[in-house]
UniProtKB/TrEMBL annotation, chains A, B:
A Pfam family reported for this protein in Swiss-Prot or TrEMBL: GerE
Domain HTH luxR-type, first and last residues per copy: 150-215
Protein name in UniProt: Response regulator transcription factor
Gene3D superfamilies xrefs: 3.40.50.2300
Keywords, ordered alphabetically: DNA-binding, Phosphoprotein, Transcription, Transcription regulation
Modified residue annotations for 4-aspartylphosphate: D55
All copies of domain Response regulatory, residue ranges: 4-121
UniProt-listed SMART domains: HTH_LUXR, REC
Source organism per UniProt: Streptomyces cylindrosporus
Amino acid sequence: MPVTVLLVDDEPLVRAGLRAVLEAQPDIEVVGEAADGAAVIPLVRQLRPDVVAMDVRMPLLDGIEATRAVLRTVDAPPKILVVTTFENDEYVYEALRAGADGFLLKRARPAEIVHAVRLVAEGESLLFPASVRQLAAEYGRSGGNRAARAAMDRARLTEREAEVLRLMARGLSNTEIAARLVVGTETVKSHVSAVLAKLGARDRTQAVIAAYESGFVAPG
Amino acid sequence: MPVTVLLVDDEPLVRAGLRAVLEAQPDIEVVGEAADGAAVIPLVRQLRPDVVAMDVRMPLLDGIEATRAVLRTVDAPPKILVVTTFENDEYVYEALRAGADGFLLKRARPAEIVHAVRLVAEGESLLFPASVRQLAAEYGRSGGNRAARAAMDRARLTEREAEVLRLMARGLSNTEIAARLVVGTETVKSHVSAVLAKLGARDRTQAVIAAYESGFVAPG
DNA sequence: GATCGTCTCCCCCGGCCGGGGGAGGCCCGT
DNA sequence: ACGGGCCTCCCCCGGCCGGGGGAGACGATC
């Protein structure tokens, strides 16, 4: 069955764009739209979407309040994907703390948008979407810390995964980690893949960065 | 004759604030504004300001690159006053090394801003205001792992290599770094290899760890 | 007992990574 | 004029990495 999505944005143009991008996917279906946060709750109850793509800055009720309201009042709430224009948007971190599952830049490429929707639908959190990385590179290092901490908290690593991440953050290769933990390299690869998925990291380097930025490991 | 100033910042609000503060002075005149680094060079050629108040973090072309570009391509270049939000901004030092004449915190009081503009216009350099001196002192001790710091000092990275390492420490792949620096991937690979060799790192992950441990990049 | 989560291991495979070696252009200092 | 960094780009190639998919074993919880 397809992933169902509810679009919430005050700009019709943005909604139309998201709809076009997402509807092009056979496994994604846009089941509704709302122009402000106040209309979200009844629509969520009625449509029961898997994912809500929610703008942060909206009239009446902003994305943060709407996120809190949905998570507080709806049983088996949908995943919330926060949509924003700026990567260094204070409201985005507020929304993540309010319980949103990931965020997405409006200027992201279509493939990245689709990827983000699928990921949150599967229950993953999104720390390092490619679009954010790129923008963070353009603006400097303003995007990181708080989002990193939030993502690390939300990651819910198992003990073994945390152990593997600590060794990754000391520069060990998969083979070396396997030797240290006295398991097979394939096992280590499984754990590493799980860590990457949970942190929304693309490779071990990004995972280590997230570990430092979140305070999971400390320098010195 | 008055001191003429060109404002370069991607945030209209910041430009408006600087303009208000500076225009209040009879001997200072704001002669132009730009929203990104790419627009700076033609404006400098056209307006020939005495001082350019340049943001470090900007889209398209950041303050460092813009500073280099201006100093390299303009005859009798203006004084460059780097404007930043954060005191511990790695980019600021980079900009100073690129030839900027001083820097200025956005949160500075109006009188300090005016003072800074007048000073650089007179040819003084503003490299170490109190806030930065303090931060440099903190870097001196809190910058973690002494061995890592020693290794980083011994490494003697070139400017380009340091730039590449910073981007590596943000999780960018070689391809992404190449796009950002507008060079070929082979070039990036050369720089990365040089960084790894100089730091004694086996792979990019270890290099990023060294960057964090040495304080070359700081979490938060 | 059945289900779930965790830890363990396996195969295939494409791709990025990093090593080695080379080379041309540029600016700078001797 | 000649070197010496530095930045740029090129080739070949082995290997580690990460994705996708699958599966068995164990304990806990319902």
